[in-house]
User: Fold these one by one.
Assistant:
Number 1:
Amino acid sequence: MGKRVLIIGAGGVGRVVAHKCAQATEAFSEIAIASRTLERVERLVASLPRRALARRVDADQPDQVAALVRELKPDIVIHVALPYQDLAIMDGCLQERCDYLDTANYEPPDVPRFEYRWQWAYDERYRTAGLTAILGCGFDPGVTNAFTAYARKHLLDRIRTLDIYDCNAGSHGKAFATNFNPEINLREVTAKGRYWEHGRWVETEPLSISEDFDYPEVGPRKSYLMFHEELESLVKHFPEIERARFWMTFSDSYLEHLRVLGNVGMLRVDPVRFQGVDIVPLQFLKALLPDPSSLAENYTGKTSIGVLVEGEKNGRTKRYFLYNVCDHAACYREVGAQAVSYTTGVPAVAGAMMVLEGLWKRPGVWNVEQLDPDPFLARIASMGLPWHVQER
Ligand code: NDP
């Protein structure tokens, strides 16, 4: 029997999640979408091939989330609003006894430091309540965690080094724009870099380390070392990993804009008094930049994202790259979204299906690498994200 899903967030990723849930008629019998701006939810609902409910919610307020869950009685909440709402939505789900899944870990609004500790602290309460919470089930984090678990299960007896490579080789034709929420994206990119080596974190200046990497279907691209949230959970759950790093490509033009915006103070996250009101420069900048979902229509090119693992198999050193390539224009034709939203939204829906089908239904709070990667990776492939393994 189909299940009821409540999607919170109606941005780029929310759009993909809603369309993919709507396509999965057998898995989801009822769909409800809630977000801060009702008109946006209504526009999204109107674009779907089948009926869905539209609601307004301020998901910063646990009481509002709980009231919504009480009213709609979903079997699972897929949270694709912003990381700031993670804890309030986890609280609301706990109160009304509903499973939970998100794609990004909690970050306090006034400190650009995303960490899992706040959400891991819910483990005991979710366990006791018999509820499942899946953290970070987008592409990275999400599929990258499942690739790592798959490599450990099938390809290597031990993982020595892990490098996650994320390339968006697409072009949206705008002078400067971010591919997902600008505030979250710019906070992430301008933060200090961090990687794991021999049991400790090594901190680097923002985007100060780069190397060329040969991306499937894209070719060699300069990639910059930065911290990304899945590193934290992966080194915790695979303590054998000696070094773990994350790399992302940026165009020279993007980096130049970033440098100038940073120099003039537009990336600050603390309030600045302006004509009698407090303004957070980064939030103001977000209001000026293109809405990420508006980039989709004219986006061309591909994303190529994967995990390079090196380790031992039967005493011999082996190296594999597990990856997916996704085409922006093809995503737009299918669901009206670009590939960055698509590669996030498809795994979120596949993860929710894993919970609802009982394959990932385990009381507690889980990162994706702690769960069986096989059915999940098979599902994302059948839902539009085929993936491949290359021996390198
Ligand atoms: P958008 O900015 O496009 O959409 C965010 C949505 O959340 C909007 O609909 C917004 O409402 C809503 N929202 C914001 N605040 C609240 C609130 N207080 N209550 C209710 N709704 C709220 O972001 P994206 O769709 O691009 O990204 C969504 C999430 O996915 C983010 O957390 C992002 O970090 C994550 N992500 C994860 C990736 C991964 O691979 N794991 C990759 C890319 C993104 P409104 O319309 O009013 O603004």
Number 2:
Amino acid sequence: MPSRRRQIYEGKAKILFEGPEPGTLVQYFKDDATAFNAQKKAVIDGKGVLNNRISEHIFTCLNEMGIPTHFIRRLNMREQLVRKVDIIPLEVIVRNVAAGSFSKRYGVPEGSPLPRSVIEFCVKNDELGDPPVSEDVLTAYGWASPPELDEIMQLSLRINDFLCGMFYGIGIRLIDFKLEFGRLIENDQLRILLADEISPDSCRLWDIKTGNKLDKDRFRQDLGGVADAYREVALRLGILPENGNGDHTHNQIVH
Ligand code: TMP
Ligand code: ASP
């Protein structure tokens, strides 16, 4: 059951509640999955528990590396305590390999490595379908200032380097992913923090040997085995006991 605290915001896959102390929130991971701007919807049993654990692991590593994030600690199976930030209304997409909307837009075959990692920005606005936005337009409207954008790009590339290495070490190719950042005033200083989550919902993860998809494209493309794929990622990261996600017991994908 979600926390009994006051609800602040409900998104497609998460709910934010008021936190126990000022300046904190409780981030609750639902089992709901949506795609194509919520035209496609389903409940994927156990997804929220897995994303909570996977995102906890990644944000903990990033915090330890000195990348500022909103993550404080995991509270239980589906909730984590985070710092309350003002979300910058952008979806920051980092791409290493062509896939998804990039392949469609530019006619680059899925799976071909990009000449270098690239960053793209979309406006975080479901009503508009999260449209791509140029740096010029987003700074003109002040959705992020030029120094904030520099900081966001530097952090995104550091996060990408870390994640590429981490996933490579467990036999997974990091194709692309989406980040969200927030602002926080601390000691009169405006800081940029990584917010939201990093999980198979927000990344494309392909098994290096087989090319199998271990991410939300399994749901988008009706490939089946969504929760099993997420569980496989968690198992390889070493954050689940063998044969379980803590909620109930499931079979693991053979690799
Ligand atoms: P795209 O190729 O569909 O633009 O997606 C790029 C990456 O961003 C991919 O890893 C999936 C992720 N993503 C989200 O997390 N949320 C979204 O709303 C979209 C469109 C993509
Ligand atoms: N845009 C999200 C995705 O496909 C979810 C949604 O649009 O409903 O990842």
